[in-house]
Amino acid sequence: MGALGGEEVTVWRVVGGARPAAYVMSAVVVVKAVACWFSWMLAPTWAAVHLAGMWTGLATGACCFLWWVILRVRLEIGPQLFVAVNPWGTQRLPLEQVTHVTLGNWGAEFHQTDGFKTTSYALSDMAGYAGKVQGAKRFREVQAALERVRRPA
């Protein structure tokens, strides 16, 4: 049981410079769109509306894309379920189907009893570059969380 009375779930998200960069890029295009609309309010012309509309569309597209690719991506390990929220979809697996976890090119790979594997992009900082493993501490945390939830009560 967690501190609030529910089941305890461990969550990992994208770390490093990707999350702050996504927030900054989103903020820049949103501020530009707001500035264009403010400029239109001071001097209403069709050119100003066109420019403000273009920046509003760009801001909407950029914010949605960055949310989809970076900000919503996460890994959750709960008492009975493993959930990997990746850009292309969400995979939910019962923990009994996960045999072990390894490091892959795009993050942590959870191997399943049927031979398939699920990659968690939230842990993509752990992928190796030039033969070096990054984020070994986070990988150990994931392994420990898996062992903790598998341990009989």
Secondary structure elements and their pairing?
Blueprint: E1 10-13, H1 18-42, H2 46-71, E2 74-77, E3 81-86, E4 89-94, E5 98-104, E6 107-112, E7 117-120, H3 136-150
Antiparallel strand pairs: 1-2, 2-3, 3-4, 5-6, 6-7
Helix pairs in contact: 1-2
Give me the secondary-structure category. Answer: alpha+beta
Radius of gyration: 21 Å
Give the N-terminus to C-terminus distance in angstroms: 12 Å
Strand order, largest beta sheet: 1-2-3-4
Uncertain residue ranges: 1-5
Describe this structure in words.
It contains three helices and seven strands, in the order βααββββββα. It has 153 residues and is an alpha+beta fold. Helix content is 43%, strand content 24%. Helix 1 (18-42) runs antiparallel to helix 2 (46-71). The protein is elongated, with a radius of gyration of 21 Å.
